Write a sequence for this structure.
């Protein structure tokens, strides 16, 4: 079976959980014999024909047009990140650029053929206003006819709203089944009503898909409630993690480290983390709270933490590349994820694999599948403080728990999730 | 008589490197030695060396009638020793002319006065020792970091053997009084000389500002302004025009192309042809003034920074406050635990520039802060500083545990 997969992020370019999830599932699908043609928001018209397991870590590149020399050159680059760079991929969703005029013509033609007039109106409105991200999404959709012409596949699998327009175009042209994978909705990201245009795209993508894969029951309910996707069309496949051989503890501080790891945005609840740190440091001044990541609330959180006069109690790392994330997990004891709304949340699984005890929001997908993590309401500072106190007051207990976390996490690997995906593919092919 | 006092502040901090959480507890130090070397070399070439040479020339030419004063910090002297010994030598050459007065301050250019009196006294003494050894000059004039002054400083300065203190001629303290007169400290025990900030800043900040109505500033124009100053005095008492500024004004803040060196070269000539004008050292006030000057009280700290001329350049926002309080707490602990090997690094962190970089003030002053800062944002400056403090704390903590 061959799947045409379109996603916006793939390692080593990681801005969030999406890249990690795609990598994890792709690798296991390849292991189970599924062939994948991967499309990313590259500047050049290329795709990545993934055929064997190793391809997930070093994707071979194929150009759509006959440019053998260039293709050979790119494929000779040994470092994946360099290869991506040459193809015009950079680690942010703003990466996508191509001659807009050509794409616009192409889409105009398409708009007349397909029935989704309004959907494209939304996109072209943004295009005309020159908004980068929307323009790139539009352009990606616009080049899909070229891919459809050259590639053969059994079904299309797209990830999140950025690639839904591409998926819809592919389905319209090829009449192949479409699976829309939903990792996060605009409701989660915005923590409020969000961007109407993105809602429109999410709604259309989910409605046009033959099947929808949600990363959790939590997300399944969300899209059923908000986008009226019938439950019969939704399949839940929980994410997993890809850490195979977690290292042992390698401390930075002799005293316990409590971690916040993720984007510093309203959705992730960094302000709740600070409130916990303020109360804990009163009784345990030796403990270190570390905020890792960046985001639109970064400045605010730095200022807020300084205003609490917690001395060196709260430290910041800024954005961390993958290796540093793992280094930090090796040095940490407790992870708090007080997300207001978390469709899944891979970070606590990775933390557990490193023996870190997670305290996670009940409003998260990961809470549905782990037993040993502490689950709390994101606003329940009292409860979080109580748990942290308990853990800090008995270091032996903390060590025992670390072992249990590791054990549980090692059972949550991508192979099971990939098995479920294949069953879903088979429903459609 | 109008006595023109040139006082130049010569200082560079040890700028921090991007010290992150992963560096805590390791062996590396906190400073960006590559950047620090680069800056010392650049400023030496563009400013210190050419200005020193020019001043040397002027001193020789006017045979003692051209006198100037310096305050040189320990953090600069150390870095000159490391990265530009010829510049250090040229300052020593200047000292040998006998026409340069050296003043006292904190060795680390710190805010220690506000947060730790003992540390403050330690740093003042360390600085005095350096000045005596290096320049063979025993300071009698004291100027605190960034010209921060309040009454209490007079008490300590007196105990430390100083007889004159410098401060900002801020209107909020002076009221209708003129900064041209010498004053006495609140207790009448030390002389107080106040910066004439309008004319000082015309050179230091506005010299090459094309948007300034007086641009370009010529020597004739400047001397013309000075000519009118003595008109306020009807009884023939001596006046002091205190032109205080950063030494980097010459060649670094105001580039050579702006004509700043020609300005400095020409100015003494124009002033010295006038029989009612002379150049003086701050300490000359002790001999010159034959009457009892009025006392001025500075109940609140006043500085020479920003529009507010208060402490807000260093201590206005939460980051600056948390960083400073934490710094002096940890310094105290290093002291109490006798961790002498950590002392030098943490003292380098007391340099006021570190919290200056964390300032989030907007408009004009924010620009000045940004001009000086090696970091992209005030938050970055805070984060690296806090991480460095955290490293000191972690090292103390390990010793504590070891002892138990």
């Amino acid at each position: 079976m061959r799947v045409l997969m379109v996603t916006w992020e793939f390692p080593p370019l990681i801005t969030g959980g999406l890249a990690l999830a795609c990598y994890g599932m792709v690798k296991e699908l390849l292991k189970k014999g599924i062939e994948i043609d991967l499309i990313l928001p590259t500047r050049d018209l290329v795709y990545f024909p993934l055929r064997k397991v190793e391809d997930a870590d070093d994707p071979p590149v194929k150009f759509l047009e006959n440019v053998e020399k260039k293709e050979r050159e790119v494929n000779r680059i040994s470092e994946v990140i360099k290869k991506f760079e040459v193809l015009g991929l950079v680690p942010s969703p703003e990466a996508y650029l191509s001659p807009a005029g050509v794409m616009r013509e192409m889409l105009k033609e398409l708009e007349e053929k397909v029935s989704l007039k309004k959907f494209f109106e939304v996109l072209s409105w943004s295009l005309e206003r020159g908004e980068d991200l929307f323009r790139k999404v539009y352009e990606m959709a616009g080049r899909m006819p070229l891919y459809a012409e050259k590639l053969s596949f059994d079904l299309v699998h797209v990830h999140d709203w950025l690639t839904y327009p591409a998926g819809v175009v592919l389905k319209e042209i090829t009449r192949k089944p479409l699976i829309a994978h939903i990792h996060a909705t605009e409701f989660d990201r915005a923590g409020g009503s969000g961007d109407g245009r993105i809602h429109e795209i999410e709604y259309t993508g989910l409605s046009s898909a033959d099947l929808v894969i949600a990363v959790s029951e939590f997300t399944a309910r969300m899209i059923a409630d908000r986008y009226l996707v019938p439950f019969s069309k939704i399949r839940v496949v929980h994410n997993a993690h890809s850490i195979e051989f977690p290292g042992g503890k390698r401390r930075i501080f002799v005293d316990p480290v409590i971690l916040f790891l993720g984007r510093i945005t309203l959705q992730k609840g960094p302000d709740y983390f600070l409130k916990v740190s303020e109360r804990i440091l009163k009784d345990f001044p030796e403990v270190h709270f570390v905020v890792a990541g960046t985001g639109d609330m970064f400045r605010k959180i730095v200022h807020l933490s300084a205003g609490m006069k917690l001395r060196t109690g709260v430290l910041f790392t800024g954005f961390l590349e993958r290796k540093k994330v793992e280094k930090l997990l090796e040095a940490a004891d407790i992870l708090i994820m007080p997300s207001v709304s978390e469709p899944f949340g891979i970070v606590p699984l990775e933390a557990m694999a490193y023996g870190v005890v997670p305290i996670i929001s009940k409003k998260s997908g990961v809470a549905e599948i782990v037993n040993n993590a502490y689950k709390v309401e994101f606003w329940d500072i009292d409860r979080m403080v109580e748990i942290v106190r308990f853990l800090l007051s008995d270091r032996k207990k903390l060590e025992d728990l670390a072992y249990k976390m590791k054990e549980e996490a090692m059972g949550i690997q991508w192979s099971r999730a990939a098995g479920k995906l294949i069953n879903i593919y088979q429903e459609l092919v | 008589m109008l006595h023109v006092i040139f006082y130049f502040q010569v200082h560079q901090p040890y700028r921090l490197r991007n010290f992150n959480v992963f560096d805590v507890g390791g062996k590396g130090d906190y400073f960006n030695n590559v950047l620090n070397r680069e800056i010392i070399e650049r400023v030496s070439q563009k400013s210190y060396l050419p200005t020193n040479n020019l001043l040397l020339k002027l001193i020789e030419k006017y045979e003692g009638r051209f006198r100037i004063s310096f305050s040189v910090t320990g953090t600069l002297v150390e870095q000159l020793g490391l990265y530009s010994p010829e510049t250090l030598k040229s300052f020593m050459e200047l000292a040998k002319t006998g026409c340069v007065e050296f003043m006292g301050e904190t060795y680390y250019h710190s805010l220690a006065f506000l947060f730790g009196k003992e540390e403050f006294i330690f740093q003042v003494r360390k600085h005095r020792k350096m000045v005596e050894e290096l320049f063979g000059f025993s300071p009698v004039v004291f100027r605190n970091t960034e010209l921060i002054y309040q009454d209490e400083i007079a008490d300590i300065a007196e105990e430390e053997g100083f007889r004159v203190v410098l401060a900002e001629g801020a209107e909020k303290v002076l009221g209708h009084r003129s900064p041209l007169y010498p004053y006495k400290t609140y207790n009448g025990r030390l002389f107080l000389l106040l910066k004439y900030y309008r004319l000082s800043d015309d050179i230091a900040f506005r010299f090459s500002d094309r948007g300034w109505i007086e641009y370009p500033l010529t020597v004739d124009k400047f001397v013309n302004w000075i000519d009118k100053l003595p008109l306020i005095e009807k009884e023939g008492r001596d006046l002091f025009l205190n032109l205080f500024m950063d030494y980097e004004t010459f060649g670094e803040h105001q580039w050579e192309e702006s004509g700043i060196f020609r300005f400095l070269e020409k100015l003494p000539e124009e002033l010295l042809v006038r029989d009612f004008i002379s150049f003086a050292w701050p300490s000359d006030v002790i001999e010159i003034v034959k009457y009892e000057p009025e006392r001025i009280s500075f109940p609140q700290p006043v500085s020479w920074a920003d529009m507010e001329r208060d402490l807000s350049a260093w201590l206005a926002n939460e980051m600056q406050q948390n960083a400073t309080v934490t710094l002096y707490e940890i310094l105290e602990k290093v002291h109490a635990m006798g961790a002498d090997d950590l002392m030098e690094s943490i003292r380098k962190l007391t340099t006021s520039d570190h919290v200056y970089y964390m300032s989030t003030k907007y408009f004009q002053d924010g620009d000045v802060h940004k001009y000086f800062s090696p970091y992209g944002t005030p938050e970055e400056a805070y984060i690296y500083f806090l991480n460095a403090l955290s490293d000191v704390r972690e090292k103390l903590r390990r010793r504590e545990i070891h002892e138990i």
